[in-house]
Amino acid sequence: MALSASVALWFLPLLVPLCFYVAYTDLAEMRITNPTVLTMAAVFAVMGPFLYPFDAYLWQLAYLGIVLVAGIILNAAGAMGAGDAKFLAAAAPYVALGDIRTLMALFAAVLLAAYAAHTIAKRTPLRNFAPNWASWSQEGRKFPMGFALGPTLAIYLCLAALYGS
């Protein structure tokens, strides 16, 4: 993997709880909160200069803006929720450009697993463990993407910590 194992290890303890909080809030409320994504961005902004050479840090930080603009356009087109766009933008600086293909394959696998788990839980007595979650009552194309996006970033960082450059 292109992301350094040491960089991933520094980010892991701060980001994994945020990633799982994103999954939870999207399941329970069908939203990804602004304080969560702002915290993710702040963690990178504060720690990044100590973990990357300054020019690499600026490029990684630029990915946040690039992905945010793309997410705003996709949200305006109705292809993506605003919270999903914000999360992707906040997560972008943590991903090494050389790992994009790996990340996309990982996201595909996590998305399939999350969709299957959500659908099974929604249609079985498992739903009774959290009967008031907003994601249970969504019909049609509404799916809590944070349930897949958060774990994808967490797993990516774990893999980078184990197999990073």
Description:
This protein has 165 residues and is mainly α. The protein has one domain. The chain contains six helices and no strands. Helix 1 packs antiparallel against helix 2, helix 1 packs antiparallel against helix 6 and helix 2 runs antiparallel to helix 3. The chain is globular. The N and C termini lie close together (6 Å). The model has no long low-confidence stretch (mean pLDDT 95). Keywords: Membrane, Transmembrane, Transmembrane helix.
Short description:
The chain is mostly helical. It has helices spanning 5-29, 34-51, 54-76, 82-91, 100-122, 146-163.
Sequence-ordered SSE layout with sheet pairings:
Elements: H1 5-29, H2 34-51, H3 54-76, H4 82-91, H5 100-122, H6 146-163
Helix pairs in contact: 1-2, 1-6, 2-3, 2-4, 3-4, 4-6, 5-6
- Classify the helix fraction into a percent range: over 70%
User: Which structural class do you get from the secondary structure elements?
Assistant: mainly alpha
Series of secondary-structure elements, N-terminal to C-terminal:
HHHHHH
Biggest beta-sheet profile: none
Shape: globular
Assembly level:
single chain
Report the β-strand fraction as a percent range. Answer: under 5%
User: What is the rounded Rg?
Assistant: 16 Å
The average pLDDT value, as a whole number, equals 95
The number of helices is 6
Number of beta strands: 0
Distance between the termini: 6 Å
Q: How many separate structural domains? A: 1
Uncertain spans, ≥5 residues at pLDDT below 50? none
